Amino acid sequence: SKAHRRGIYVYQFDSALIQRLAYRMKILTELKTALASGEPFFLVLQPKVSLTSGEPIGFEALLRWRMEDDSLCPPSEFIPIAEASGLSLEISEMVLSKTIQAIKLLSQAGFLLPVSFNLANKDIASPNIVNDINRCINEHEIDATLLEIEVTETQATEDYTMINPILREMISRGVGVSIDDFGTGYSSLSQLADLAATTIKLDQKFVNDLSCENNEKALHIVQMISRLAERFQFNLIAEGVETEHQRQLLIDNGYKYAQGYLFAKPMPLDMLVNWLQSNDK
Ligand code: C2E
Ligand code: MG
Ligand code: MG
Ligand code: MG
């Protein structure tokens, strides 16, 4: 009967919902324990390279979390849960401190290139994080130009009037500012003209779309963003370059720098130092 089917439907809906909630609760509980010790977290670093020579120009720090069952929980899963639960500032502070450590170790190994880290939504607006960044730079006596922050285009433009002056202050101290996932947000042209950023990062979606049979639209977007970066004097990095074909199309359209599996995957620091030493001739 209809009522019977509806009963089953409601039951299945509830069970999926309950499973999702239970999963979030498990992540959240484990996340709190993990954050208290800090130990299950580590950074992997992905080189940013020249599209033509493959030479590294810097690195992006990406967070990894090893869960109690030894599996790695991807940041796309635990960062949103952390944000919704008020834990994101704690994560950003931990990532900042691990990034500073990475900068020091890379410097000691002879590699003086900037390292960027990702800031969770809203954290850039927190006075804590700006103070932390300034304090870390002073305490550890690192060159501010070796540190970079990445904020998404959506973040930077949603709270533009509040965030843009903060980004500008960071830049005035020498810290780099990258606008992440560029092209997927909704910056207005007037915001763009005034955007406090040193670099924009073309979202990997567009690079991926370059490989499609009908890539005309993607090609137009890729070209427009390259002109825009040139006009407004932003450095430009393409994300997610996986194929030789994509590399060539990007070079043809004025791109100089990229990140992607074609060049190097994100690696723990010791592997990165090996990669750099074998790359360095
Ligand atoms: P994102 O900042 O845009 O980072 C780029 C993501 O693309 C990374 O995924 C990286 O591993 C991946 N990637 C790099 N090259 C390629 C490629 O050639 N092909 C493909 N398919 N993917 C590539 P990951 O590490 O899983 O991070 C995902 C997102 O999670 C990041 O996007 C960033 O938004 C967030 N995230 C990562 N670490 C942190 C962190 O420490 N703090 C915060 N707040 N967010 C983080
Ligand atoms: Mg990023
Ligand atoms: Mg990105
Ligand atoms: Mg992304």
Automatic annotation (TrEMBL):
GO biological process, alphabetically ordered: phosphorelay signal transduction system
Lineage: superkingdom: Bacteria
GO molecular function, one term: cyclic-guanylate-specific phosphodiesterase activity
Domain EAL: from-to ranges: 24-280
UniProt keyword list: Phosphoprotein
Name of the featured protein: Diguanylate phosphodiesterase
Residues of the full protein shown: 465 to 745 of 745
